[in-house]
Amino acid sequence: MTPDMELQRAVRLALIATPDVVQHVAPERIRTGLARPEIMPCIIMSSAEVHTAMLPTSFVACRANWTRRNRDSATAP
Fold first, then answer.
1. Which secondary-structure segment (H or E) carries 4?
2. How many whole angstroms from its chain centre is CA 8?
3. pLDDT level of residue 67 (50, 70, 90 thresholds)
4. CB atoms within 10 A of CB 29
5. CA Rg, the chain, in Å?
6. How far apart are CA 27 and CA 16, in angstroms?
7. Residue from 17, 19, 16 nearest 29 by CA
8. Which end of the chain, N or C, is surrounded by fewer C-beta atoms within 10 Å?
């Protein structure tokens, strides 16, 4: 079992163990998948998507933006 599947399983079990959730959503309607539910209400967890190639670039862009904002706010009247 992959880590994302283990996480989904743990989340599902936690939701099923919560009476307030089960009061509104039947346990068999808490599942993973991509298909549109036929019966509502339901909770569907889709498969995980991790884009590690984007993380460093995004972080560098955010850091540059934060630095620019801090510099601009320090010089504002």
1. helix 3-16
2. 11
3. low
4. 15
5. 21
6. 6
7. 16
8. C
How many residues are present in the chain?
Answer: 77
Q: What is the pTM of this model?
A: 0.58
DSSP 8-76: HHHHHHHHHT-HHHHTTS-GGGEEE-SSPPSSSS-EEEPPP---TTTHHHHHHHHHHHHHHHHHHHHH-
pLDDT digits 0-9 by tens, 4-49: 788 889 999 999 999 999 999 999 999 888 777 788 899 988 876 6
Domain extents for the chain? 3-75
pLDDT band at 75 (very low <50, low <70, confident <90, very high): low
Beta-bridge partners for 43: 30
